[in-house]
Amino acid sequence: MKRARNLGGFAVLLLMAMPATAGPIDGLAVCLGDGLADVDMARVSLIARQKDPPPGVAGWNLNIHWEFGLALWRVRHSSRGTDQLVEASVTPVLRLTMPWPTARPYTEFGLGAHVLSDDRIGNRALSTSYQFGSHLGVGAVIGARHAWELGVRFQHLSNAGLETPNPGMDFVIARVARRF
């Protein structure tokens, strides 16, 4: 129970920090994920970038952006369980970008909250509809006015041990984003 309260407190702090760091919605991302447990995922996210990014360090720019996502998970092959579910998520993403004049490479880390429409997908029991997601990603910001982003992420979702079993779910994700 103490662990649940701590994680609940983390979620509240996450949402309270958002207004202090996020600007207006200024981008849209589309992600396609290959789940390592025979589950595929498609996600659309709205992006809110940091209002006042801090100065760069050693040539790299550090910033935070927020992603508000809606996804559909589908089992690749028919199973006895639920064949699909919907996911809603909010994730702050910490990104380091090299500000080159053409393509701008980046690496990023995100940690967010996810709510699923079901606690089962296929034959896999996730125990709870509330999941925490973390990801590591790399990519590049490209194009005129650096308006496009192309990237790859590895994402892990689990209930952080709140319930058992806690098998988690892993995805390798291709991501394309566009700034407005």
What does the model show?
- With 180 residues, the chain is mainly β.
- The chain has a single domain (2-179), classed as Porin (Beta Barrel).
- It contains 1 helix and 10 strands, in the order αββββββββββ.
- It has one helix at residues 2-21; strands at 22-35, 39-50, 61-75, 84-97, 104-116, 120-121, 124-125, 130-142, 148-158, 169-179.
- The strands form 2 sheets. The chain has an 8-stranded antiparallel barrel. It has a two-stranded antiparallel sheet with strand order 6-7.
- Strand 1 (22-35) and strand 2 form a beta hairpin.
- The longest helix has 20 residues, at 2-21.
- The protein is elongated and about 50 Å long.
- The termini are far apart.
How widely separated are the two ends? 43 Å
Structural class: mainly beta
| CATH fold descriptor | Porin
CA-atom Rg in angstroms: 17 Å
CATH class: Mainly Beta
Descriptive terms for the model:
180 residues, mainly beta, Porin, 8-stranded antiparallel β-barrel, two-stranded antiparallel sheet, 1 helix, 10 strands, 59% strand
Task: Please specify the SSE layout and strand pairing.
Elements lengths: L1 H20 E14 L3 E12 L10 E15 L8 E14 L6 E13 L3 E2 L2 E2 L4 E13 L5 E11 L10 E11 L1
Antiparallel strand pairs: 1-2, 1-10, 2-3, 3-4, 4-5, 5-8, 6-7, 8-9, 9-10
